[in-house]
Amino acid sequence: MPTYDQAAFRTQFERGFTYLGGFLRNVHRYRTHTALTDPLQGRSWTYEELNGECNRLANALAADGVHAGDVVMYQLMNRPEFAFLYLATQKLGAISCPINFRLAGGETAYAIDESQPVVFFYDTAFAETAAGALAAAKHQPKRVLEVGGGAQAPALPGAASFADYVARYPCTDPGIAAPSTFWDETTRLYTSGTTGLPKGVPINNAVEIFTAHDVIMHFPLSPRDRTLNMTPWFHRGGLYSGGPNPVFYVGAEAVILERFDADLVLDYVERYRLTFLIGAPPSLKALHDAQLKRQRDVSSLKGIVTMGAPLEREACIRYQSILTPNIFNGYGTSEAFWNTFLRPYDLPGKAGSAGRSCTDDDVAVVKVYPDRLAEPQDHVAKDGKEVGEVIVRAPSKCSYSYINDAERAARTFHKGWIYIGDLGTWDDDEYVTIVGRKDDMIISGGENVHPVQVEEVLNEHPHVLDSVVVGVPDEQWGEVVTAYVLPRDDAPTPAELERYCSTHPMLARYKRPRLYRIVESLPYTATGKKLHYKIKEQATRDRAAGLLQEP
What total number of domains does the chain contain? Predict the structure, then answer.
């Protein structure tokens, strides 16, 4: 019986099919095309020039002893150096590890100790956080480098500037043949877990490539496009949805936005003829309001892609009429990127839902049990009413593991499905609508904030007996972090608690409460567990009644 020999295919696929290979194809076929533009510097890089900058950095890292499998960590805003690091590490087979610049010093130290980077890059805008993190970390990187400082002296003792670090190295390829395989880890992201501390999410070449394919297919994205991601690139949605990953893989152009400003974004749309914007739903409101105040030419936009929260129907209609009729909404996780997609033809009719599964993904809503995960086929009714846990299957975009946390992986990944922890419903057409979270996660301004971590910090205050932290719906931020505080004796004021939280080493500033209420009791179950949903319901009423205090 005839058979076919798999050997040649397997060898070429596993050794030759890498994200770096895709980028390098564009270096010669789109050699003179613009790959990256930084409006703040007034500078652009062609694909050939971008490759040269990445080679220069790769050679510097190699001279510092960075080898395959080593971690290079960087805590940067959206800057050209971020893109250089993302690609240069892959030329060595090293692991690129961008982390949230909004983390507190203690949280950053946790990531440093877990991943043990050989080299650590920090943004001079967050030098104080970096200094605290390095002082607290047990692991000390071999080299610490600053980015964004220009000609000024290094902010941290012993830290060299990025420019000085790469200055004496050539822009020629480091000459490492096949630095990684299809299966090797290329990027490591950190995202908040149920304890509130970051957890490491590994991404390999397969996930890099198929995530890029997913974006290219769903936008769709072409080499003629020019994108601007309005969110930080350290996010899965920032780096991978219209950010460097799909842009450099397809041969398009990425325009850098360091900090979100609605007027600036609209100015860039007009100036650079941007074709896609990517951001969180609150960004759309800001863009809508700014465009109403001062009209720009946004006719170049093919679409605006949002992530992180559902789109309300009436708001969606306004955005479509003022900005672009082509509004998309993706829903997913750091672990598996987006897994459902809401397209312009779904709107406004399906606004409020998270859409239905992406082309290569499966999504289901299963029953919730107090002591175990439901089996993947244990579905709730497709009636848009029965609530269950949303689970997704995305084998092309998920590595199905965490760094050094097999226990958490076992609780999250089950029989090829990812148990996200979101609660939702689905209808007969399998459109999913999110109604809450099993673990009461708060999403404020596109950032995940877990109540437990904030509560633990508040409860360390000498005058706090206990606290419950919830998210209150907010037009600007999606949700605003709100604390109900049970005092131990003399009740602390919101201003005192704000000062305390702002200086706590284990609480990033974006996680601190923005609204407070001092109370005489908190709701608990018979076994002593806090009833967050009851406080959440009360907080919505209290805010309407003016009972919540700003610090």
Answer: 1
Q: If you compute the radius of gyration of the chain from its CA atoms, what whole number of angstroms results?
A: 24
Q: What burial letters (b/e) apply to 533-550, b meaning 16+ CB within 10 Å?
A: eebbebbbebbeeeebee
Beta bridge partners of residue 137, listed in sequence order: none
Token duo for residue 287: 């863009």
Instruction: Please provide residue 38's backbone torsions phi and psi, each rounded to the nearest 5 degrees.
Output: -115, 100
Long-range contacts of 38-41 (CB under 8 A, 24+ apart): 38/79, 38/80, 38/256, 39/255, 39/256, 39/268, 39/271, 39/272, 40/256, 40/258, 41/80
**Buried-exposed string 355-383: b where 16+ CB fall within 10 A, e elsewhere:** bbbbeebbbbbbeeeeeebbebeebbebe
Query: What's the whole-model pTM score?
Result: 0.87
Residue type, position 52, single letter: G
Residue in the block written with tokens 């439901």: 374
Residue 111 is inside which H or E element, if any? helix 105-115
Which residues fall within 8 angstroms of residue 418, CB to CB, at 6 or more apart?
Answer: 333, 335, 336, 391, 392, 393, 394, 398, 400, 412
Name 447's bridge partners. 444
DSSP 8-state class, residue 220: T
- Write the pLDDT tens digit of every residue in 235-286: 899 999 999 999 999 999 999 999 999 999 999 999 999 999 999 888 898 9
Give residue 196's pLDDT.
Answer: 60
Q: Are 44 and 37 in contact (CB under 8 A)?
A: yes
Task: Confirm whether 447 is domain-assigned.
Answer: yes
Q: What is the CATH number of the domain that holds 525?
A: 3.30.300.30
CA atoms within 13 A on the CB side of 203: 30
Where does the pLDDT of residue 153 fall: very low under 50, low under 70, confident under 90, or very high at 90 and above? very low
Q: Encoding tokens for residue 137?
A: 């970390």
In a domain, 351, yes or no: no
| CA–CA separation, 514 and 334 (whole Å) | 26
The whole domain housing 478 covers: 442-544
Does residue 506 lie within any of the structural domains? yes
Separation of alpha carbons 154 and 163, rounded Å? 11
Q: Is residue 526 part of a domain?
A: yes
